[in-house]
Amino acid sequence: MRTPPLNPVGTLFGVPATHDPAGSKLAVLGVPFDMGYHPTRIGSRGGPAHVRAHSALVAEHLDGFGLNLLERLSVVDLGDVQVLPGDVEQSYPNIERAVAEIIAAGSVPLTFGGDGAVSLPQLRACKRGLGREFALVHVDAHTDAYKDVYPYEYNNANTFIHVVDEHIVDPGTSVHVGMRDTDYGDHLGINQYARELGYAVITMDEIVSMGVPELASRIRERVGSLPIYLCWDMDVFDPSVAPGVVTPSWGGITVREGLGLLRAMRGLEFIAFDINTVSPPHDHLGITGSLAAQVAMECVFLLDSWRTVSAA
Fold this sequence. Notes:
The protein is an alpha/beta fold. The chain has helices spanning 47-53, 69-72, 88-104, 119-130, 159-165, 192-197, 204-223, 255-264, 287-311; strands spanning 6-7, 26-31, 76-81, 108-113, 135-139, 175-179, 200-203, 228-233, 270-276.
């Protein structure tokens, strides 16, 4: 029997369901967990099912990649981790073990959250299972490296403080991209603490000034030759194109910019894809779920492009 047990669910469109990642190059996993105390928006625990439901319109073919890419990578959907929203003590070990099993099978995890709190146990699994260093590329409206937002040791606002404290990644090779939110507190510099920890922070204003090609170059320069854990929070997109997120923030990237950035990172090595913060109750006509499914498909292209480069 698998530990932790996984819940069978509807799968990502065109991807077979299984509880065994063996033989797969990429394994989809739902992480339906949120902390449950956001002041206005509870709902990201339903994100995995919502993305799967709206994945049918996402085509798996793209010019230059040939046909049957999902088959070529033997992509499978493992269902959802068994979690209890708000219960870190019970849920984090289950998340970590589920991701660790994917890694142990030689597959790359592609997960759907859940809020930003789901990233920490996944990063722990990568640290313990890979046996080598990797960089973090976190694309989000927020650094999630904030102190004293909530009176809890673990929450969706301080994930990347724990990542440094636990020595999971070197912040000197890692980067937060897309920051633009305002601050409810009375301290100066909402991105200041992330920078003090050693992370690079590239704000939305900087992205507008430099453009996507320069942004991709900055990311490549930062991570160097290290493989990448890609954490993609859907609120990096402007709420006009992704309204169904936990903490929307106006002035975000367009869909074209987001897809452009993902495509500009082809050829880099990725060890995990973590797409989170889709909140179905706040999603108009399913457009955020559909966009998250497209981001996932772009991650499939990213993995295939690396395999092509590494085999050359």
